[in-house]
Amino acid sequence: MENLLTVDRLTKAFEIHHLGHIIPAFATLSFSVAPGEFLLLSGPNGVGKSTLLRTLYRTYRPVSGHVWYTLPRGQGRIDLARAADIDIALLRRREIGFVTQFLTARPRVSAEDVVAEPLLQAGTPLQEAREEARHWLETFGVKRDLWAAYPMTFSGGEQQKVNLARALIRPQRLVLLDEPTASLDAQARGALVARLADLKAGGVAMIGVFHHPGDVETLVDREIRLQPMEMANVA
Ligand SMILES: Nc1ncnc2c1ncn2[C@@H]1O[C@H](COP(=O)(O)OP(=O)(O)O)[C@@H](O)[C@H]1O
Ligand SMILES: [Mg+2]
Description:
Blueprint: E1 5-16, E2 21-33, E3 38-42, H1 49-56, E4 64-70, E5 77-79, H2 85-94, E6 96-99, H3 111-121, H4 126-139, H5 156-168, E7 174-178, H6 186-201, E8 205-209, E9 222-225, E10 232-233
Parallel strand pairs: 3-8, 3-9, 6-7, 7-8
Antiparallel strand pairs: 1-2, 1-4, 2-10, 4-5
């Protein structure tokens, strides 16, 4: 099967101007992901796992290297490291998801509408989108009384559940996960793993860092272990 993503000699470092040195994150990293594959990203704290996911999502631009992403329907491939911002924005809306443990809640939007929004953007009628949203809120264990309430006032764990429901309601082609379960209860973690298994079976590719890697053991096809690098002085 053709790869969905091919990472080629990707290098990222942070230049800390006022200290006159460079913090290397990773260098000449190459790997690929096919549809339906699940890659576990591992390594010690501060090794660059979040930085790698953010570089793939183009929150950060790499120093060098390529991130080839295969477009659907034979439209060829695009280098996410160099693509125009407008193309990145479209891909984020339709094809590439990023799941963290944090919800960006907005004032006066109910939990069910926060979760339904990605479906509404994709053209699903309002009632159907809300029903689907309630299904996922229930699945992730958000109490029924909270569905019409504003997530801004929720506990951290409740916000995480709303966040997962929203992030995974609409199947995408590639999902990047950065410790989405860090402080979730066992029931919600179980629901998440079940959802990821379904997405994987449906051909969604995933790259993720997990606080409890044992949770996703049965899903993992390959592991990428990042190694610590030395700090370099700017010449
Ligand atoms: N925006 C940034 N500016 C400067 N340094 C950063 C930035 N983001 C991350 N770093 C540094 O890059 C390294 C890797 O961080 P990170 O990717 O968050 O690690 P991990 O997710 O593996 O714990 C750390 O040394 C961190 O301090
Ligand atoms: Mg991290």
